[in-house]
Amino acid sequence: MNSINTNSSAIQGLQALNTASSGLAQTESQVATGQAVAAPKDNGVTWSIAQDMRSQASAWKTVASGLNRAQSIIDAAASGASEIGNVLDAIKASALSLSDSSLDANSQATLTANIKQLVSQIDQIANSASFDGVNLLVPITEPSVPLTAPTGGPNPTLSFSSPVSGQAGLITMDYSFYNVDPNAPDEPTLTATGVTTNTSQEYGAPSNPGQYENLSTTFQYGDWSNFSETDASSVGFNFDTARFPTPALPALPPPAAYGVTVQSLTLTPFATKAAVAASPSGANDNIYYQPMTSEWLGLSDLSSLAPDEIISAVNSAINQVNTNAQQMGDQQDMLTSQAQTANNMQNAITQGVGNLVDANMAAESANLQAQTVKQQLAATTLSIANDEPQMLLSLFRS
User: Fold this and answer.
1) Is residue 260 in some structural domain?
2) What does pTM read for this prediction?
3) Is there a contact between 77 and 129 (Cβ–Cβ < 8 Å)?
């Protein structure tokens, strides 16, 4: 039916124009962004999946960055270890020369000074082998932890054990012997089990005859040669004053006996490793500290040793450096593989996201032209439809 109130052709033309304009706008958006799914309104399910995959790719990128940083840290440490190995070879050569008994005093002094200078060079190298603030060749202590120990009493012996963490570290003990005969041929003894060495011991001057105060001893425990995890779980201590059966001296206050008192016991563990993220799931790889300072290598007091003892100490240090360097090499290989895996995962997921949301630009180029033509045709159709009332009006003209 022809009507001037309801122009069905114009309505259909307008619908066609709106559809063509919407299609053209969508195609233009895909051409502009390069994505077929750029927002939830384009395809909610696909957009959600793509967002989750983008998050995974970002996580793998972060993992790869962390692994690359860890690899650079170990590369710096490995380079330092190689240089320290060269210095140790030079120290050994000087020590071999020093063992020549035909050398005069001046030559021996020169060689001794050279050895001392080379030892200081080891510390310079170790302290400079750092990347991004991390140095694997210098020991790092963690916060000290006070341990509980018995205070002792008027007994000739005191024995106890204390738990320690499963990593290398130091135990420092402050204690006092009292009512000990100062004229006795031997001093009271302190022995420890589960420790590596007794690194220092200080005796304070007695404030009263037979009373020693402010004694302090530091013990090393754990695997200091490898400096990784250790099975050390406890350290035992034994104080012995039984060799001093001297009756209490009249000038001393109670307790009227002899014995030992422990004032404090402190655990200072060393940082043995640093965790590096190996996957977005939270799994970690560890990079281990491998201290190579002169003290750690047992070379801090070579001047007091004979030439053959210097050679022995240097050989031990060389073996330790070689072992540590081998471990760092194994970690370098592991981190290289892990970083490559992380990069591959990031690339694969990124490509998968592209397969889901990227637009086919060749097809969209052709579609753009088609949508443009459709819009033009719809506009022409609507223009023709809008002329129909005028055509009806012409029927009433005489």
Assistant:
1) yes
2) 0.67
3) yes
